[in-house]
Amino acid sequence: MSHRKSREKDKSVLVIGLGRFGSSLALELMNYGWEVLAVDSNPRRVQRYSESLTHTVVADATDEEALRQIGAEQFTRAVVAIGTHLEESILCTSLLVDLDIDLIWAKATSRRHGRILEQVGAHRVVLPEHDMGERVAHLMSGRVLDYVEIEEGFSLIKTPTPRRLQGVPLGESGIRKEYGITVVSVKHSGQPFTYATQQTVLDSGDLIVVAGRTHDVDRFAEVR
Ligand code: ADP
Hints:
Blueprint: E1 12-16, H1 20-31, E2 35-40, H2 43-49, E3 55-58, H3 64-69, E4 77-80, H4 86-98, E5 103-107, H5 111-120, E6 124-126, H6 128-140, E7 146-151, E8 154-160, H7 170-173, H8 175-179, E9 182-187, E10 194-195, E11 207-213, H9 214-221
The chain binds adenosine-5'-diphosphate.
Residues 16-22, 39-42, 45, 60-62, 82-85, 88 line the site of adenosine-5'-diphosphate.
């Protein structure tokens, strides 16, 4: 009989690979109150984080027997944070899939790597370098202060209020029709962010959060 806990109640994660990505992730999970079992084949990496994480183990995560010994199949969540070692990353992900772990996140270093990880059975694939490169490109061009692509082709940005939107209630601005975007939140100067309504009137010092198709949001970010 399986003693695996239900995913909702379970606050433990198996993190494989303590490189820059895996270690940052593991430490942040600890800050959020998660229990972290971290595995790395490099004893120096494991030693470095042994004090800060719940459990750390030196093991080869491409060795099925080693994974069983550390109780990997008891986990409902795992992250494969092996990036640069392509073969190891794929093999480890496929072993975790065989162990029937509910939710496997895997880090990829390229779209092709990501595609393979998905085909092998990873539930969520992240491309940190690729995503950050895209983000920085958006942050560098125009007046975008923050940018998140929520899914392919749909984004949220934080930007100062262009003159075009100042002094009229949002509901009367015609901005959605003209640019296809929605102003979802507003930060009047000196105040915290709050949601925007049809009646919200924006001022020159206000920051706004805008949602829409990436193409439309980018076009809107150019408006003065
Ligand atoms: P980053 O770019 O985030 O620093 P790396 O790919 O450089 O990521 O680091 C991945 C980590 O995964 C390294 O610490 C490496 O020792 C570890 N690693 C690689 N192969 C295995 C394996 N088979 N089992 C366990 N850990 C591994």
